[in-house]
UniProtKB/TrEMBL annotation:
PANTHER family: NAD KINASE. Its main location: cytoplasm. This is NAD kinase. NAD(+) binds at residues 73-74, 144-145, 155, 174, 209, 244. It comes from Melioribacter roseus (strain DSM 23840 / JCM 17771 / VKM B-2668 / P3M-2). GO terms for cellular component: cytoplasm. It comes from the Bacteria. Its EC number is 2.7.1.23. Involved in the regulation of the intracellular balance of NAD and NADP, and is a key enzyme in the biosynthesis of NADP. Catalyzes specifically the phosphorylation on 2'-hydroxyl of the adenosine moiety of NAD to yield NADP.
Length: 296
């Protein structure tokens, strides 16, 4: 087993955190290498971490059986984009707030290393999205969602949706969120979309502040093709992936979205499950009346 560590170097005290994680990995007798994104901090590490292998991303991915993403959910999304052409499993160590995808903290990661060596873990295949903007060569890629929105223009935009070439609707809104099951607990949820179990092969379309009472979120098969045409009187709309990569385009602009080719493989402990994470992280399904009664 070989682990490749990709940290978010903007996190507070990241050198000491990585040092601690590396010591845990070495104590577990597992081979590892570090992303060369930390080369500029190499001298800050104590021995023996200072003498570790610091590899460029492409070499690190080839080296690694699994990647350890150190930061939070946003760091995992960034890591997933970096390795999008592979299906290398990702372990998330959370240094952020939510930690919905990044399941482990520093303490639980140490415990998990024993399970990792024993093969007591789950690799969950998560659906991804692939998008193509008409007239643009580069493809869009997302783990959570692809969002079309009004950008800096403080007016509604017009959106026309077709699914498998069948006309669905034309409506005015601030935008539209096209989400995977993984992304259903993110921006889509905040816009009123449903929670979709990651084992479901489905895509959710959640309008952002639609100016019509009857325009509600829609769940379709992950095998279907979505075509969206956006128009704005301002002339431009924003298209962003996972809230991290944004493209501004003149309108009208057409975007086609389908299920991605490679899955995103997320490593879980077999000691927890999706519904437990929903309850612990989002307080989903918890009845405050029962909690108050139990505390008396």
């Amino acid at each position: 087993m070989k682990l490749g560590l990709i940290p978010n170097i903007s996190k507070e005290d990241i050198v000491n955190t990585v040092d601690l994680l590396v010591r845990q990995i070495r104590e577990a007798g597992i081979e590892y290498a570090l992303s060369n994104i930390m080369l500029g901090m190499q001298e800050e590490f104590p021995d023996p971490v200072k003498n570790s292998d610091f590899l460029p991303l492409d070499e690190l991915i080839k080296y690694s059986d699994m990647v350890v993403s150190i930061g939070g959910d946003g760091t995992i999304l960034s890591t997933a984009y970096s390795i999008r052409n592979t299906e290398t499993p990702v372990i998330g160590v959370n240094l952020g707030k939510m930690g919905f995808l990044a399941e482990f903290d520093v303490d639980s990661f140490k415990e998990f290393l024993g399970d990792l060596k024993n093969g007591s873990y789950i690799v969950e295949k998560r659906m991804t999205l692939r998008g193509k903007i008409e007239g643009v060569d580069d493809e869009l890629y997302a783990i959570n969602d692809i969002v079309i929105d009004k950008g800096s223009w403080a007016k509604l935009i017009e959106l026309t949706i077709k699914i498998d070439d069948d006309y669905v609707s034309t409506f005015s809104a601030d935008g539209l969120i096209v989400a995977t099951p993984t992304g259903s607990t993110g921006y889509s949820l905040a816009a009123g979309g449903p929670i979709v179990n990651p084992k479901a092969k489905a895509i959710t379309l959640s309008p952002i502040a639609p100016h019509i009472l009857t325009m509600r979120p829609l769940v379709i098969s992950g095998e279907q093709k979505i075509r969206i045409v956006a128009r704005s009187l301002y002339g431009k709309v924003n298209i962003n992936c996972d809230g991290q990569r944004t493209i501004s385009r003149n309108t009208p602009v057409a975007i086609e979205i389908t299920k991605g080719g490679n899955s995103f493989n997320l490593v879980h402990s077999n000691k927890s499950n999706y519904f437990e994470i929903l309850r612990n992280k989002l307080f989903w399904g918890l009845d405050i009346r029962n909690i108050n009664m139990e505390s008396k």
